[in-house]
Design goal:
The complex is a heterotrimer of chains A (269), B (379) and C (311). Chain A has 269 residues and is mainly alpha-helical. Helix content of chain A is 78%, strand content 0%. Chain A starts with 5 loop residues before the first helix and ends with a helix. Chain B is α+β, with helices and mostly antiparallel strands. Chain B folds into two domains: 167 residues, P-loop containing nucleotide triphosphate hydrolases (Rossmann fold, 3-Layer(aba) Sandwich), CATH 3.40.50.300; 124 residues, Nucleic acid-binding proteins (OB fold (Dihydrolipoamide Acetyltransferase, E2P), Beta Barrel), CATH 2.40.50. Chain B is globular and about 75 Å long. The two termini of chain B are 40 Å apart. Chain C folds into two domains: 53 residues, no CATH class; 232 residues, MetI-like (MetI-like fold). In chain C, 72% of the residues lie in helices and 3% in strands. In chain C, strands 1-2 form a two-stranded antiparallel ribbon. The longest helix of chain C has 34 residues. Chain C is globular, with a radius of gyration of 26 Å. The chains are: A mainly alpha (269), B alpha+beta (379), C mainly alpha (311). Chains in contact: A-B, A-C, B-C. Chains A and B meet through helix 7 and helix 8 of A and strand 6, helix 3 and helix 5 of B.
Chain lengths: 269, 379, 311
């Protein structure tokens, strides 16, 4: 094939488009000046401001808790859903489960958020639970939409997995539950890790759904960021963004490296 | 009965007093509208190495999976050692399976793979490890006990899979294309090793394969499957020399088949008129048939003689032109177009390194066969 | 060797005693969760969209009342009539759909060459590029939209650059425009476009392309007759993955759009948090659901079709 310049150029521009805003956040987080256009010299004062802001720290703590719990539950439920859909063959309710396990992926967040809030209100009226809204309701909401992502990730791994591994374990005398924990889980472990990280990130990132289903006292980090950003430039948010980007970049690089290493091991097989 | 003889020599299937070890009775399996296995009945005897031979989609793997318990028969019954196994879960069956993909657990070492089944049946750890060590020694894998499957060669992995399936001392070992993933040379070596291990342990083997050569070398008996049905069961030479149908004759080895009409039906011979062959076919034994019935006569290529001169006689000889010669080293295959238009295959062993007199392309030759060379088929 | 008599484990026996099979239980858990927290909520929304706003907690009239055994239903379609009468809502729906459509189309045009380039790159560059596409997705969506604010505002990077270079004297108005909204959507949803495209393009076997070249097709012809038709499922999937969520987008029009950029997600938000009119917000949501459900079903069918082909 002719080696044109068109594709590399478009691709490069695409990546510039993807990364320029992120890079600018990082750069300006070290800008002493409040104005984006003016370079006021290198400074870490926004970081200091960030780490002394009790509101932000409190919200971050709530967000991390919510994300960790939601991700864990979402992995459990999403894996079950994926397992049922890839391994159980036909059963009643299969079509509904398939639809419900993928629809949250594309469902507009405002709909998900509003509908869950109204459910919680209705439930409280009828059965008295959940009494008020806060972290619990956010976690339930996040589990629901994150488990769809987990299900997709795990499903693709499960359907790529050699089913005779599970049959072999069964043939050697392991009952289905045992097979699941001895063979299925270890083999799909990379997908579980990926699913957890994805769910964690999505939960940590969610503004709209959390805004609907939260109650007084439970403000997540995105809510604080949103209210600050709405008011205009806030350089401490740049600092926060930089920290998040650094953590994510590090995590993704390590994860990719790990995955490639284990893949290489497999491929020689 | 003392087991001094191998099963192949004792031939328990010829003795009606012998009780079969595995009984498959009228088993049918349907997947929706598709019938994978249709009304299969099969008896397998203790210590046999039984091969299910068939093409892809013949139902042989489905039958194997029903014996292992991965599929439930739509109807019929499967019995192993006198116990009904039809609806017993795979983890409760006295069978073990060696998978085509080997299905070695990628996250466990060789040792743990082999020990897995023993630990599942609740055997104490040190006792299990002893058994594992003995088994690894048998398959010559002791130095690799600590390795993961992806650190092994194809042949080594095949042996781990075998060891893992054998270590539980199943009553019946099921092998799904056991040698399919190995290259030709390794496959031949492994075939003999497999037979040796089977004879050492005295375990009944049931092998699924599409490779007729493999089936011939390994088995005490072969069951040929086609479109979900067992079309013939017999010892390897029976299947080869006395096929019951054109399908079996054609599927196992290669064959020339002539259609003919019975024109003489005597107690000790019959004669077929065969325009397809271009001569009358004389069969040197009696056949249950009627006059004018259409039958088929099948002759293996190695039983066809080629000569430049007329072999004489009034039948079983036709003339043709050599169209193609394939040189395979040990033998050569000739494709000869008969005067009737039919193309037949004949093989000649290359006994001399250089054959000055060799028949070559476009030569006109006589093709002939004796009156015991072929088999008469009515379907 | 275990015998059939040893049969079942204690867990299985316990479940059997309760009249349940383990299989049914495993199916029931995710099914029940999703039914309760994904399906039932829509029914609640539908119900509330048929009630009236009231100054109460919660702020709507009950839909039915119990009187002994008699149930009185109050169905009120006023909220839907209101959405129809007030041009604001219809405009917002149409504007949302057109915005989502334009953005998805632009994302397709931008994403296709990128996906193609990545899929045709040799390893390990392919993995690296793919990682680079996914990486922004892992960082905060909100912060990435915020970054564009900094880029586009009158005193922002773009205007600073342009005035600095002397190309313009007055800062261009970039923020609070529809352009900024398109940009924001394309930017944040681009990975959703590239990934399915990449997945179909990378599966396209080199043999096919070589066969095409061997049969005399030039690269452009090969692309038009082989690559493009075979990547249609990926294009549709990517398009829908951008189009569907973009319809209900709230953050992007809120932060990058102007006050008149009334996308329906924003209208719903304002109706709910601003006017506290839950019934109207619910009616808005139900109509929006009807708008997105068709493309969702379509997407689902494409995915099911693709799965079948893999099998």
């Amino acid at each position: 094939m002719r080696r044109g310049l068109f594709l590399p150029v478009v691709c490069t521009l695409g990546f510039v488009f993807l990364y320029a805003p992120i890079v600018s956040l990082v750069v300006y987080s070290f800008n002493d000046s409040r104005l984006v256009t003016v370079w006021g010299g290198f400074s870490t004062r926004w970081y200091v401001q960030l780490f002394t802001d009790p509101q932000i720290l409190g919200a971050a703590w709530i967000s991390l808790q919510v994300a960790a719990i939601s991700a864990t539950l979402a992995v459990a439920l999403g894996t079950l859903a994926a397992y049922v859909l890839t391994r159980f063959g036909p059963f009643r309710g299969r079509a509904i489960l398939t639809g419900m396990a993928t629809a949250p992926l594309v469902m507009p967040e405002v709909i998900t958020g509003l509908s869950l809030l109204l459910l919680f209100v209705a439930m409280e009226q009828i059965i008295g639970w959940p009494g008020g809204r806060g972290m619990t309701t956010i976690i339930i909401a996040h589990v629901t939409f994150c488990m769809a992502y987990v299900a997709v990730v795990v499903q693709s791994r499960l359907s790529g997995m050699d089913e005779s591994l599970e049959e072999a374990a069964m043939d050697l005398g392991a009952r289905p539950v045992r097979v699941f924990f001895d063979v299925t889980i270890p083999v799909i472990a990379p997908a579980l890790v990926a699913g957890w990280l994805l769910a964690f990130t999505l939960s940590l990132d969610d503004l709209v759904i959390a805004s609907f289903v939260t109650g007084p006292g439970a403000s997540t980090l995105p809510m604080i960021i949103f209210s600050k950003v709405r008011l205009g430039v806030s350089p401490d948010i740049n600092a926060l963004a930089t920290i998040i980007i650094a953590v994510v970049a590090l995590g993704v690089v390590v994860a990719t490296w790990q995955m490639r290493r284990s893949m290489r091991g497999r491929r020689t097989s | 009965m003392p087991d001094t003889q191998t099963v192949a020599a004792r031939k328990p299937w010829l003795d009606p007093a012998q009780k079969p070890f595995v009984r498959i009775q009228k088993v049918t399996k349907k997947f929706g509208d598709f019938t994978a296995v249709w009304d299969v009945s099969l008896d397998i005897f203790k210590g046999e190495l039984f091969c299910l031979l068939g093409g892809s989609g013949s139902g042989k793997s489905t039958l194997l999976r029903m014996i292992a318990g991965f599929e439930a028969p739509t109807s019929g019954r499967i019995e192993i050692d006198g116990q009904d196994m039809t609806h017993v879960a795979p983890y409760d069956r006295p069978t073990n399976m060696m998978f085509q993909s080997y299905a070695l657990f990628p996250h466990m070492t060789v040792e743990r793979n082999v020990a897995y089944g023993l630990l599942r049946e609740g055997m104490a750890r040190d006792k299990a490890m002893e058994r594992v060590a003995a088994m690894l020694k048998l398959v010559q894998l002791t130095p690799f006990a600590g390795r993961k499957p992806h650190q092994l060669s194809g042949g080594q992995r095949q042996r781990v899979a075998l060891a893992r399936a054998l270590v539980k001392r199943p009553k019946l070992l099921l092998l799904d294309e056991p040698l399919g993933a190995l290259d030709k040379k390794l496959r031949e070596e492994t075939q003999f090793e497999l037979v040796k291990i089977q004879e050492t342990l005295g375990i009944t083997f049931m092998v699924v394969t599409h490779d007729q050569e493999e089936a011939m070398t390994l088995s005490s008996r072969i069951g040929v499957m086609n479109e979900g049905e067992i079309v013939q069961v017999g010892e390897p030479n029976e299947i080869y020399e006395f096929p019951h149908s054109r399908f079996v004759a054609d599927f196992v080895g290669s064959v020339n088949i002539f259609e003919g009409r019975v024109i003489e039906d005597e107690p000790d011979f019959i004669r077929l008129a065969s325009p397809e062959a271009g001569c009358d076919i004389h069969v040197g034994h009696g056949v249950a048939c009627t006059l004018n019935q259409t039958l088929w006569y099948a002759v293996r290529p190695e039983k066809m003689r080629l000569s430049r001169t007329d072999p004489g006689g009034a039948f079983n000889r036709v003339q043709g032109v050599v169209q193609e010669i394939a040189y395979l080293g040990n033998l050569s295959i000739f494709r000869v177009r008969l005067d009737s238009g039919k193309v037949v295959r004949a093989t000649r062993a290359n006994v001399a390194r250089v054959d000055e007199e060799a028949i070559s392309w476009d030569e006109r030759v006589w093709v002939s066969w004796t009156d015991t060379a072929g088999v008469v088929l009515n379907r | 060797m275990s015998t059939p008599a040893a049969g079942r484990g204690p867990m299985t026996r316990l479940l059997a005693a309760l009249g349940l099979s383990g299989r049914a239980l495993v199916i029931a858990v995710p099914l029940a969760w999703l039914a309760l927290f994904f399906l039932v909520p829509f029914l609640v929304v539908a119900k509330i969209s048929l009630s009236e706003a009231a100054i109460a907690r919660p702020p709507y009239t009950p839909l039915w009342e119990w009187e002994g055994l008699r149930v009185t239903l109050f169905l009120n379609f006023e909220n839907y009539a209101y959405l129809w009468r007030d041009a604001l809502y219809l405009d917002a729906y149409l504007f949302s759909i057109s915005t989502a459509f334009i953005s998805a189309a632009v994302a397709l045009v931008v994403g296709y060459p990128m996906a193609y380039f990545i899929a045709r790159s040799p390893e390990p560059r392919r993995t690296l590029l793919l990682m680079l596409v996914i990486l922004p997705f892992w960082t905060s969506f909100l912060l990435r939209v915020y970054a564009w604010q900094g880029f586009l505002r009158d005193t922002g990077v773009v205007n600073g650059l342009l005035t600095g270079l002397g190309i313009i004297d007055e800062p261009l108005r970039l923020l609070q425009t529809n352009f900024a909204v398109y940009l924001g959507i394309v930017y944040t949803y681009l990975p959703f476009m590239i990934l399915p495209l990449y997945a179909t393009l990378v599966k396209l076997e080199q043999d096919l392309l070589e066969a095409s070249a061997d049969l005399g097709a030039r690269p452009v012809a090969t692309f038009l007759t082989i690559t493009l038709p075979l990547s249609v499922p990926g294009m549709i999937a990517g398009f829908l993955l951008v189009f569907i969520p973009a319809i209900g987008e709230f953050v992007i029009p809120e932060l990058l759009g102007g006050p008149d950029t009334l996308m329906i997600g924003r209208v719903l938000w304002n109706e709910f948090f601003g006017s506290r009119d839950w019934p109207v917000a619910s009616a808005v949501a139900i109509v929006m659901l009807l708008v997105v459900v068709v493309p969702i079903v379509f997407l689902r069918q494409i995915q099911a079709h693709a799965e079948e082909r893999v099998k």
